[in-house]
Write a structure and sequence with these properties.
- By secondary structure, this protein is an all-alpha fold.
- The protein has 2 domains: about 90 residues, no CATH class; about 90 residues, no CATH class.
- It has 10 helices and no strands.
- α6 runs antiparallel to α7.
- The chain starts with 15 loop residues before the first helix and ends with a helix.
């Protein structure tokens, strides 16, 4: 199996110079060796600048992921090794990068777990808004450990009113996205019923 994040740059010649210049300038001007919240946030900021290179011809997502990992070397080595094993595409990699480093100033794991468990659906919010908020909190929690689709779905259902939970139980879904589709159908039916009652 080919390791997408092995130290091989697929672009050659002129394509290498902006990448190497960026990495060199960041690592030389910011020789951090500690893992404070500010340090990690700064490093994440410099790493995300790599996305500006996406318009360069033949500059692949694999190159961007590799260069970002190289830029962050010697900072939180355990997490970097974990990310190398994940072999994520650029968008997912970037999302986890933001959650891990810039998210260091967010609430602790226990606070995040409590926030998700205590999150309740409100009648004045859309199902998509409720779903997105739960998923966002799960993404933040995932910097500590993997939050499976099943657990994400459980968190979503937990905060719903009993009347909606009863309807969800008789539907079929296997992923949080499919659960959202079920909830949106229930939402539309409820809106239609309310509308008909007031006509």
């Amino acid at each position: 199996m080919i390791d997408r994040y092995s130290p091989i740059i697929t672009t050659q010649g002129p394509m290498d110079s902006p990448v190497n210049a960026l990495i060199g300038s960041c690592t030389k001007s910011q020789p951090y060796t500690t893992c404070s919240s500010d340090t990690l946030a700064v490093k994440a900021h410099y790493a995300l600048v790599l996305e500006d290179l996406k318009t360069l011809p033949r500059f692949s997502n694999t190159d961007k992921c590799y260069c970002t990992l190289k830029l962050l070397s010697n900072i939180d080595d355990k997490w970097l090794e974990f990310m190398r094993r994940q072999k994520l595409d650029w968008n997912n990699f970037k999302r986890k990068l933001i959650s891990q480093f810039e998210g260091k100033k967010d609430p602790s794991r226990i606070e995040l777990e409590d926030a998700i468990r205590n999150r309740r659906y409100h009648d004045n919010e859309s199902m998509h808004q409720y779903y997105s908020d739960i998923m966002r909190q799960c993404d933040l929690l995932e910097t500590e450990y993997t939050v499976s689709d099943r657990h994400r779905s459980d968190y979503i259902i937990r905060g719903l009113p009993d009347s909606i939970q009863d309807q969800v139980l008789i539907r079929e879904y296997s992923t949080p996205k499919e659960l959202l589709e079920v909830l949106q159908k229930i939402e539309e039916r409820r809106k239609r019923t309310i509308f008909e009652q007031h006509v």
